[in-house]
Design goal:
0% strand, flat, mainly alpha
Length: 126
């Protein structure tokens, strides 16, 4: 004989809502999971912490990568700057984004240079 309150007894009786005692469904619609959301290419938070990226490049330097090659990777090449300038002339809103990105890369490079420069100043304590 089925016991009162057991899920399998409610299923056997054809009760649709066996998680809740009354006719209340706990299912919900997840419409946001399928909707397309606009994500900007450059997140504002991505440009707030240049020290993180500089630390990443410094870690590569400590692992034996050339400081000069890393500097080239950090800087924005002149060809890219020229392309961004042309794009900013066509779309003025991009000018602000490109300017922020160039400033960010310059800050990363400055921090990286400080870290590399301080590498020679450390003395080993034995």
């Amino acid at each position: 004989m089925p016991q009162k309150g057991r899920v399998d007894s409610k299923v056997a009786r054809g009760v649709q809502y066996y998680l809740t005692g009354k006719g209340f469904s706990v299912n919900c619609v997840f419409s946001m999971a399928t909707s397309v959301q606009f994500v900007p290419a450059v997140q504002p938070a991505d440009l707030e912490f240049p020290q993180r990226e500089a630390a990443f490049f410094y870690g590569l330097f400590l692992r034996g990568h050339s400081a000069e090659r890393l500097r080239q990777d950090i800087e924005v090449p002149p060809a890219v700057l020229a392309k961004w300038h042309r794009e900013a002339e066509r779309d003025p809103q991009l000018g602000d984004v490109f300017g922020r990105m160039v400033d960010y890369r310059r800050r990363v490079l400055a921090i990286f240079d400080l870290l590399v420069g301080s590498e020679g100043n450390h003395q080993r304590v034995q």
